[in-house]
Batch of 3 targets.
Target 1
Amino acid sequence: MWRTGRWSDEHVELFIGNLLRWGVIVAAFVTAAGGILFLSLHGGSIADYRVFRGQPDSLKSVTGVAQSAFRRNPEALIQFGILLLIATPIARVALSLLAFLKQHDHVYVVVTAIVLGVLLYSLIGV
Amino acid sequence: MSGLVAIGSFAAGMLGALTGLGGGMIIVPMLTLAFGVDIRYAIGASLVSVIATSSGAAAAYVREGYTNIRIGMFLEVATTVGAVGGAFIAGLISTSAIAVIFSLVLAYSAFRSLRPRAEHSIDGPPDKWATRLRMDGTYPTAAGKQPYTVHNVPTGFSLMFAAGILSGLLGIGSGAVKVLAMDQAMRLPFKVSTTTSNFMIGVTAAASAGVYLHRGYIDPVIAFPVMLGVLAGALTGARVLAGAKVPALRAVFTAVIVFLAIEMAYKGLRGGI
């Protein structure tokens, strides 16, 4: 039955709760580390954010951010933390998809796959 | 500047958590009006903080058993598609137009927060969509698990699409529109609609955050004090919630929102944003 066992609604919800909590904690920790590093390097300088310039390419894509983050670039490290944060609800939807698959709940497999598709399209595909 | 932004974001996050109205609505006006940040950077930073508070709070709500994941997931089809659309619209229209739309949403939210939410009767025949999609559920009360039925699914779905567009366009959680859809149209019990809506806000914001990231609208130096400030403020707000004078705080929050709405409209119309 779909309401019992390891993939029951209650079990999945509990797991999702923990996933969300740890996702936020790890993302906040990485972002804070990047922020402290940034302030220690650029403490006094104030950039002008009245003018919109956009971000360099290395901070605009998933692979670009991940690559620069490991070169001790503080901005990229912050951006990596933000990416982890964006990934947290996406991981939650992916987990729900898995749960609906295990429960053979075909309607919700389709519903959840659409949501996951939109999220991945936005993050990777545009 | 990072320090001041963090302090302002902390206050916004705390007020948002205490009043249940969300801090996102203050972040964008604060950054644009007080710090002179371009509204596109402000919206990018606000979206990030919305994901953080929603995911943080949802972790606690999910355990209590009020959240209806099926309703949330079904409505997320509407909110995520709307959010991606809203993020694209944000790149097409002028920043002044965004500011004016923002002020209208602020004014509407202030109007809604002044009117008490009325609990609806939860009986009556359910919607045929709700039955087909197995949305009806139970929620914990003092007297044990209470069943509820779901109504007007197509209306709720359409309203959620609008909420998604606003979220992607303005970088807010659109809590006021989500509550309208779930309380008024679908007639869910309060606790269920509040927690399910909060649960959806993070997923909705993540859908537009991707587009903002690719556009270069998420600036790490602005986003980090906002994200950490709002998160710390929201956590503090949730802790002190028990002893807080919520009606007085709501009045203060509403007054702040009305002031920000006027200021955003004025500057937007004069082309100052």
Note: The CA atoms of residues 19 and 91 of chain A lie 8 Å apart.
Target 2
Amino acid sequence: MKPILEVENLKTYFFTKEGVVKAVDDISFHINPGEIVGLVGESGSGKTITGFSILGLIDSPGKIVSGNIKFKDLDLQKISAKQMQDIRGNRIAMIFQDPMMTLNPVLRIETQMIETIKAHNKTISQQDAYNTCRDALGLVGISSPDERMKAYPHQFSGGMRQRVSIAIALLNKPDLIIADEPTTALDVTIQGQVIFEMQKLCKESGTALLWVTHDLAVVAGITDRISVMYAGRIIEQGSTDKIINQPLHPYTQGLIKSVPSKNKKGEKLHQIDGMVPSMFSLPKGCAFEERCYLRSEQCKQEEPSETQHTDGRFLRCLNIGKQT
Amino acid sequence: MKHILEVKQVTKKFVKSLDKTAKFVNYFGGSYKEEVVHAVDDVSFNIQSGEVVGVVGESGCGKSTLGRMIAGIMPLTKGSIAFKEKHYVGYVNDKYQQDHAIDLKIQMIFQDPFSSLNPRKKVVDIISEAPIHHQIISNKDKKSFVAEILNKVGLNIDAMNRYPHQFSGGQRQRVGIARALAVSPEIVVCDESVAALDVSIQAQIINLFLDLRKNMNLTYLFISHDMGVIEHIADRIVVMYLGQVVEIASTNEIIHQTNHPYTKALLGGVPTLDTTRKIYEPIKGEIPSPLNPPSGCYFHPRCKFATEKCKVEKPLFKEIAPNHFSACHLND
Amino acid sequence: MTQNNKYELLAKIWSEFSENKIAVVALVCFSIILFVAVFASVISPTDPYDLATVTIMNSRLPPLEEDFSGNVYWLGTDGAGRDMLSAIFYGLRISLSVGVLSGIFALIVGAFFGISAAYFGGRYETLIMRIADIQLSFPSILVALIILAAFGKGVEKTIFALVLVQWAYYARTARASALVESRKEYVDAARCLSLGNLRIMLNHILPNCIPPLIVVGTLQTAHAISLEATLSFLGLGLPQTEPSLGLLIGNGFEYVHTGDYWISIFPGIALLITIVSINLVGDQLRDMFNPRLKR
């Protein structure tokens, strides 16, 4: 099965006055049609920039320096701006952490949703567009959609706004949705609803989903595969089951062990000592070396390249051998 | 002494009164109503010395407001709070009083590491300002005093002369903790203090809290929406919904003998590192607006087990097992 | 990216400021004007108010004319024989001092009311802000005229009038800033630590409100200078003994019709350059502080 999205050796750098920030430094991953893939990392790991790079939303001083982004055989970097415009919101949609990045506060919901449809389908009638939008709202669990259509974003709660953003993302039946921390700002009970709905909708419509987040617990439950990012690179990627239950990279292991539920109550949580290095002065060699329990002299000198482990997953580490 | 803190029927009401136009219209038969929000509605509980009490709930439940009232920075509308059995703040015989001698004993650690430190002050001044102002230390002891506290919170001494923007989120939280510790509090209210931090830093700060509790004999009121964190460090948990307390029990009992349907929903909705593909059973409905709470039991529109009684009558907050309190008609 | 050095901070501010070349030119202009104003008595070719040297024989000499003793008057002389160049130098000094002084007092008064209004809120805030709004809805020139008509001419009275006209701008800006700052958690923390309201307002909130106040200050100073010039031109405001640029323009006005343009125009140009350069500097400061409020 051919992947619907293939990212190869992507590098997105930011050229600021204070120096070059290698926000995304040589990452490769792919998404198959209908798959749900998690892109996990903490702040500064580059996961959000990855999402923006795919959609061509990187503005100066940032620039995609090298690498390929292929969407269904289309090289996203070589197409014209107009072609990219056709793809955005239509074949690839994005959901942001803050629904107000999607929603215009001065327009009614129906105006915004119909606009999304009409931007990519010039021939559709107003009534048909309206019906599609209303049905989409129903699909994401918003009751009395006809009334809701006439409302403004500020009349909705945070959870509902996010659901409207999801509905908008689904309107044109995209092949891929990139969701950047879609449930982080939501309450726990609403988060549960939204995760449930997204999972259901993606499975029903065969839409692939890239779920970008720092929350391992959320991706553990719904993704098929996970890629873990640290300081601009993917340090481990593979099936969700393997990554969560048998993490190999010391960073992934540390992350999972720090989650409170994995620790004995009342005892000190496992912590990864130290901090993420400043992106302006990344060390030579492996970026995680200072905080790693497996570190060796070689790690200080040599940056690990991505290699495939025997169980199929990919790792960036000099000290976890190819043999188990 | 039994309790280090007693919260007695504490209520906080926010009222948006009618302006002149609305009053004018009402005079001619209009029906504008005042907007009243009971951010915290008749909350009572006690904290033992050395305990960690977790307060958990979602948006609009009032946990932050409650925390601020306990810390003394938000006035109460009704009720009172006692510290070590002496009146601290609130109404005594219909008179509002606040004992300022106790103010410093209850300190607060805030959520946002970026706005909780004054960007124009150096770390040494941020930490030493209050102790110098209250004459706990003298100006010349400033540096050594701050050095000692920085050590306790795991920061390097050269942090003293730097400004907040030079630190990361986790480090800023440590400065905030140092600032609170500088006045030797006995109770520390943590208002979502780790919510804005990355998981790996969160673990460091939580460990710091646990260490300080042991070394400095602190009592914590830990406010969070993150059940996972609360489960780990709290001895007892207070569950709030729309300004009211719905359940209080030891952490163990809350998890293994959950009583209130909302607590059950809260626990059930928390994503865990469980890869067996979980089908979420989300509870239906939105969190109601605090301006317009439902009648009877606030949770009834979303409750699987709601009965007719639930729609009409507010359930009493009762002890249903030793030291386990809940407000649900199903217990009757 | 550590900026613990004050010099590094200044260097950073300078590099941002100098991105706009026009503003740099304006700053240079203004620096020259400031220099002239401060050292007027030293660098002036003559003392135009020394009755011993001024003689009516030299009156109304056009620019670059020589007088009988061989002195060249670069910008000509006025009706009483005073050297225009020197008069302008002294005039700049007076205009700038009145403008800057009134700006500083207005800032103090405005910041005080604005910050306290934001901090305490409630009826106090409403009262202060309504007064400020009402004040701002009157044209400043009108208010100043009324005050000066009531109290008469004089330096202190002019400064008083200018402060009364300007404080509301500062108050509004200070309040807007202070509202944002008061809601931040470090103010809550200060309250938790029982630091006292006055201390919190002065020590915590005020320093964080300074950037927008500097911007308003710069632009308002230009406004004050121009307002004072208008008042002096009209014969109110500063007395004849303190001839600001406005007064010079006013005095020279009658000669414009007879063709002795230099008596009015040159002070006018000096005034124009002063106001424009201050405005350009203020604009650049405002642009700098805008997206960079998160320092």
Note: The longest helix of chain B spans residues 199-216.
Target 3
Amino acid sequence: MFIGRRTFVKGAAVSAAAAVAPQVLVRTARGADKNKVLFVSEESNPKAIAVYDKINADFKKETGIEVTMEYPGFANIAKRVATLIAAGTPPEIVWYGAGQAMNLAMENQLADVGDVLKATGGTAENLRMVYKGADRSIPTSQQFTYGWYRKDLYAAKKLDAPKTWDDYLKAAKALNDPPNMYGCIIPSAETGASTLLLETMFMKNDVHWFEWNAGKKEYEVSLDRGNQKKRAVETLDYLNELHKNSPEASTYNWGELMSTYFTEKAASSWYVGSRLLDQTIANNPKIADATVPFELPKKVTDAYYLSIQGFHILEKSNVEGAKKYVTFFMKHPDVISWYHAVPLHIIPASREMLHSAKYQDNPVIQKRMDVLKFLDSVWTKGVPLYYWDGKELNQHIGLFHNENLAGWMLAARNIKGMKSDAVVDEAAAQVRKKMKRVS
Amino acid sequence: MGSVTGHTERRAWIFGTTAPALVFLLVIAYLPIAYAVMLSFFKKTAFNPAMKWVGVANYRYILEEPELWNAFWRSVVFTVGAVGLQLVWGLVSALLLNRAFRGLNFVRSLFVLPYLLPSIVVALIFQWLLSQEYGVVNQVLMQTGVVTRPINFFGGLGTAMWAVIGMAGWQYGSFATLLILARLQAINPKLYEAAAVSGAGTLRAFWDVTLPNLRTTLIVIALLRGIWMFNKFDSIWLVTHGGPLKHTETLPLYAYRLAFEEFDFGLAAAACSVMFVVLLVGAVVYFKLFDPTKEIEVGR
Amino acid sequence: MSRLQLYGPFALLLVVLVLVAFPFYWMVLTSFTPREALFRPPYKFFRLDFSLGNYRELLFATEFVRYFANSLIAAVGAIVLNVVAATLAGYGLTRFAFPGKKTFAFGTLFSYMFPPMLMAIPLYILFSALQMRNTYTGLILAHMAISLPLNIWLMWQYFQIVPQSLEEAAWVSGASRLRALRQVCLPSARPGILSVAIFSFALSWNDFTFAFLLQTDRKMFTLPVGLATFVEQTGVHWGMVMAAAVLVSVPTFLLVFFLQRYLLSGLRTAG
């Protein structure tokens, strides 16, 4: 194929134009418009959407600022935010998990929201996300990771809610009758559900991926050292025993944790919140009353993996408008309806609100006050992953959490059959490699 | 015989007919591709609009990554498997459909339908059919005693890739069926008569008459489908997300993971450029070996 | 002729038919199965308990109709633009000689080779700057990026088979080139044009990647993206999902059924 001179010149011109054009376009893209706010939210439940619509309309009436919503869904929200930022048009507000928002904070994309926190009554210490000396998150809600079980099936075998690791294993074995009924569900895949399970159980067994080195003033990988490794191996082996009473679950994520339970194929399951109960009520109401929460049994500690959601405001956007909106939202009387969109699952960040009559005035909550009492009893035990290893915010959490490395560990142990200490060694090596790449 | 078009009018015609396509391609295809390739020479994370020039560092990193080579190998397995299945399926079904019988139109439309379905629909149908807990395929296999425990098709380490290849074959096989069938119907029946006269049986006739005529069609199908399957992202991702344990993570899924789970756009761009180069080299070799343009007269 | 030769092909045809048709049969059956019955395997192959509940829920409780409309608009737009651009290009490439033709030919093939996924990000940036994000225009143009190269090849090959003598006859009787194109060339190229239409439809209707990355507003989701989000937060509701699959397949099936004559004759040239 003979490429003539003219073709070559044309080709070079095109390439040069291609290289320059997007930069130019990005710079001329619309700058922060004072009268517009783009709000990207993870929660797309129709009832929640109705509340957003109402509050946004009221906000527009009061301030003239127009709020546009986007609902990418929780699997895709990080992607959306990334593409918006890449295009030079960052959203004003992102409502999703604080753990994910930390990725933004570390790239200096989040604004300081200390003033908004003060204006809306502050928040509990364990819910704050502080980076470079400033608050970057306005928490609105939280979920704990806890178990759900079939009280009726357990009672039939004369079993109570499990209190220790041995109890749970015994109960799972007793109720295991494949393929019609499994004793428990242990997802073993590189998915979020699997990752959260291992990380929760690691917390129960006081396993830390990182340790704070006071001398160097930084976190170091500690998963494969000494006692940490021993307890990590112990946890993996325990989950492997449990897995023998569970479906293979090598592709399971959140949906399957719920559907396998409410189609009566598992005697117990677990979830990060109460959506499992919500879905059981919707799909198989006859077992809803027998669906009762239980604390995932402790071993060394009684800590709960805490998932916090809140408002995060992006630095290079219409920060002023965004702050006005968040303050308006938090003080709006319809905020309660927003919490009621998925009752008992979207739990308020504030304990006062949990105890308030206004919050409890909801048929589902009234019917299942036992769940509310359960949540109250574990209220102070929640620890977000980025404060698990020490007082300083652990920036490296994303390195293993984003890519579901913990899920990989479970899959390698339960599906592939790798030995636990090899799994732990490999995982620690991966994290070190990523740390080197990022620095 | 000369045309009726004068010289300047002719220039206008050339411009008028090719310009729309050219402009579209330039803006929609070439520019983005050039930008994406350029991106591979920068360090760019997903959450920061800033970019930093790093030369070939991205390439050096991923070419040393065992995950890239694993993904490359899986891409090859998937492409060869899926295209092979589609060719066989296409040939068999086209031969079977190349006869007149009642309901032929209905049957032919049915055959084409999988190709026209969105990948998500196909993914959902197959997940439902092959589910370990609720799938009807497992139900039949167990009821007929072929297996004693349900097979975890999309979640099993040994079965996931084959399940995905089978699904891709089902979905895209009809592309091959259509093209081969069209070509079959254009073969001069006199050739078959001549073969029958000289005593050739059906198998011989197939070998001597049918296959040579199908040669170019098969080559073109293999080329087009090969490119498409090598780049296939949605079908595999929607059904396994690359799992279990990355056993179905082909190059496109690997690039996606780099971009949206490791949040490194520069690396992802480098991975995509590597894919592109592989395809380029493959296409050049393919053209030299098989020359599918033999019937395209470029000089016209 | 032996028994095998007589019945063999038909038996094989039956097996092949079952392999193609069974997934559809199961899909349709599941779509009419009420929710409670769905999670109780084993299933009967022939069931008589019909329920329209899934369809009702799909059409009224979700935004399925909107997604369907969005997909349709994008597909029609893609068809129109593809047909116009590819037909013109095919005509120009076969009727005129000019330099750079071979480059153009291979160039189109090469753009077909680039992974669509990474083209989506620069396209996203481009569309954002031109305020075309979340528009039909943007999505249609993105779909053309993957379908146009293939269609140019198709029409190019096709026009080579349409003999120039037809046009020349028209010129002799005094028609201008334009008139000859409209009244002589296009009609005989109709099968090719229809195949371009169907391929453009398939690529647009089927597209998940571009719609997923470019359309960020729920109101603008196409079917594939909308279906993917059904599945996410609430665990898969198989009955409703299969009902959606049925509704997506029926119009496509009808389209193919009525146009397949043209489809087959159009493809004769692609080999």
Note: Confidence is low (pLDDT under 50) at residues 294-300 of chain B.
